[in-house]
Protein 1
Amino acid sequence: MTVGAPPPAEEQVLSTLNRDGSRRWLRPRPSPGRFLAARRAVAAVLVVLFTGLPFVKIGGKPALLFDLPAREFTFFGHTFLPTDTLPLALLVLSIFVSIFLLTALFGRIWCGWACPQTVYMEFLFRPLERFFEGRHYSTGGRAPLHPLRAVGKYAAFLAASLYLAHTFLAYFVGVDRLWAWMHRSPVEHPTAFLVVAGTTGLMMLDFAYFREQVCTLMCPYGRFQSVLLDRQSLIVSYDPRRGEPRGKGRRRDGLGDCIDCGLCVATCPTGIDIRDGLQMECLHCAQCIDACDAVMKRVGKPRGLIRYSSQEAIETGRVRMLRPRIFLYPLVLAGLLTGFGWVLGHRAAADIDFLRVRSTPYRVRPDGRVESALQVKITNRSSGKRTYRVALADAEWFSSDLPLTLPPRASGTALIHVVLPAERFRRGRADVTVQVEDGSGWRTVRRHHVLGPLFAGGSAAGAGGSP
């Protein structure tokens, strides 16, 4: 060893790195069992759901649509605009608290059972890889791979990435627009073509190169475990009291149930050893449970050496499901969902905002009355075209912009000229009552102010400025 050089590492820092710092390509061995069968059934349902959800419409609207250019978010029939700060905040907080509750109860079950990254990696791309590589895969990449097999594998990966890219984009552009893109020449819509090509390239890079590193290095959820999990949370656990000391051989005198076969490591999609305890990289996919249960059955031992349990149950044998956070999270979630439902149920059919007038805010007429400018912005929140009419019950007014007809979720402004006696103004302002209705039965009354002279009788002659 060179003088001054650091000693060799005793343990692996990352499961995807070799000791010399090079990439360790994982080729996990599938372990048939009850959990793998259940995960396959769940994955099949989720793939159908992921693919079909953009086609589902509720009340004529997509079930989910994140229309970023239009700045609209449609969530199960309800469309949110950028001005919907409160309901969007309540919705996002509800999602986060739901994640906290799910993690406190079931650990990282989302990662191993329902995350699209896991579903597509383990039940689409890895099976394709095993099919095309054959013996090359089963030998850990040591056997030579025929060039035609490599071409076939990456062609299949590209086709799967195209499918995923189009499915992903359907949530942002809608199936109708996506369908039009697919049936037109890229020359007619180069921007859309580049978006599809770029998304396909990112999907290919994800599932063909980064793979499990997306979960272990890029996704922040694993790093939140220390905060979201407690000692009673459900995790995939190895029972050291039963399994240690581990050892090979038929003679088990003084040894635990673990025969140190290494199948729990060989089958892990992130390459960890579950016998080292709770780790950030563990996805809770239960492949190590299926592998270990099969081995225990062959050696005549009861299954459950690796099982779903909790840290406290493994160490002490006590199971304690009830703890403060199990009650606190549902209470907070119920409050957020109640507030979200109330705000959603009391949303107006239109947003009414009063904007600052950029031109001269008022002028004094020759007869002494004050003509003030009032600018109203109306946003149509309904699903149909609406014609808005405005009236001021306590003032004389006129406008060339009214009535204002707006398509769904569109905005428009109207400049209203309000004529008031100078005596109505106090400290340069006068309150007026503005009534807005759309002809379908919806109406609202708002109070606002217009600008005028600082004192009765007006300022010097003619036009006035901001007081």
Protein 2
Amino acid sequence: MPIQFHQGDILHARWDGGPISVYVDDASKGLPYLCHSLSTFGPSWISGETVILWMDFHSWRKTGAVEDYYQRRFVEAFGDCFVPIDVEGSAAKTFAMFRYKAPLGTEAWTWLLKQSAEALVAARNEGSFVRMRKEIEGALSRIQKIPKSGSWRIAAGRCADVPARIFAKLRSSKG
């Protein structure tokens, strides 16, 4: 069977369901991409035969980004389905290869759904945090502008005059 290369946006990828002997993936960084690639191509992997090569599998070491760690977490969670294939030299720092050993069961899809739900909550919380931080920064900016405004200077001047007038009246009434 000839090798077929498919390049494009992984989120729009489709597969005809034919068996996949070698799966090379350079696009499944981040949870939505991993979920889509696994649900699209995973059912066509052949137990004991398919070789999976995930590019940038180790990039989380450099970036520290959570989205760069999902492939590794998935393989760790379902290690009974993947057998590592040794990669030598500098390539070992970049990609990882596995033989697909056993079919992914419902636990794998449940795991992905749970990760997706947690990622959604984290994104919402981060979004709320970002919105709140912007609101606070906006309020601080407005507060810092207050003393520079003409109306503030007039009001502050009048407020400063009030105690002086009160003390002046008190002195004149005593005296």
